[in-house]
Design brief:
With 234 residues, the chain is mostly helical. It is 51% helix and 6% strand. A two-stranded antiparallel ribbon has the order 1-2. Helix 5 crosses helix 6, helix 6 (105-114) crosses helix 8 (139-156) and helix 9 (185-192) crosses helix 10 (196-202). The longest helix has 24 residues, at 11-34.
Amino acid sequence: QQYVDQYVSQPQGLNQSFRRSQPYMTDMIRELERAGIPSDLVYLAFAESGFSPEGDGPWQLEKATARRFGLVVKQWVDERRDPLKSTRAAAEYLATLHDATGSDWRMTLVAWNNGDGTIDHYSGLRKASYERLMMKLPYHTRSLMNRFMAVALIARHASDYGLDDVSFNQTPHYKVLKVKGGTLLNSVATMTHVTVEAIRQANPAILRDRAPANVASYDIRVPDNELQAQLSEF
């Protein structure tokens, strides 16, 4: 309740997070469900990062974990920042942890926050009450789990809390264009009649002014007019 109250007392931050996620939420949920992950675990990304496209991306995956699950993390591209690619990797990691913890979702989140090498360390808490579990976990894990539950609760009842509704069914307002490796973002913008800034914001994984040069082709997300208008707000 304390975390719910904190979010609701300053709703603009969570509202912004929800707005940033809307173009991608439907596809993110699809990635989670494809891996057998409950859709509500999408809110773990909000608890981790406020759904920021910057830094280590929405899921805050460590480099080694990201690479382990197929993401490219180099000087010219950091796919942890891509909402869909990082969700695919996060879903695979969560599924792996879920299997390793004996299909215990609470312990899956504990392992997510502390590393899969700590699963045996916390195994004695699998059947503990929530109160006892919280007493035994480090502060950063307690905080993450409580933020996650608070965001999920608010999202399910957003209008009751005075926040924007959160939809899992919004049609994505973008198309994916396959371009030659090394293609300048400026060229993509000219070809698709959108701004370079909108291309950058829709593709936060690309860190340079062009698609990665050492691949034959690379998928670029191109926003339509509605998404371009949304992106210009941030």
